Amino acid sequence: MRAGEEAAFVELAGRHQASMLRLASTFVPNAAVAEEVVQDTWVAVLRGIDRFDGRAAFKTWLLAILVNRAKSTGISEARSLPIGDAGPAVDGSRFDAGGAWSSPPRHWIEESEDRLLASGLRGRLESALRRLPSRQRAIVILRDVDGMSSEEVCRVLEISAGNQRVLLHRARSHLRAAVEGFVDA
Prior knowledge:
Elements: H1 6-25, H2 31-48, H3 58-79, H4 112-117, H5 121-131, H6 134-145, H7 150-157, H8 161-184
């Protein structure tokens, strides 16, 4: 394999693939992620084959690389929150055929202080906030109430920046939908 012989790689992959998948599956949430870990491991092995010094058996070295990658991936996967099948954050009927707003949300941010004090809106907003999934609720509170930055929220909740953006967008969309009718009235 060090000499770049494809046949050697194919032979090693055939010999170790099944055990690698089984081992990876113990660290990650599903078979698809386990397959990704195995693929990443083979890439790492190919890149690092020149550093294999033979002090341990090849299989031991290979599985040590796999375990490190599987643990890292397992931790990342645990921090990523599934978006789920909650449907679109904004009703599709609000857009025209070209994807532009056919019924854009009314811009009410300038008046938000006065409106939040108005009877009914505060209760409606608080009720909608309580109905949000816990992570979405936490992100809205940390970002919009406490004024924390995205980076700080990610550190506090131990989630990725992308996950935080998606959850914040969904939360804000649901809150906007809950108060939009009242604001437009």
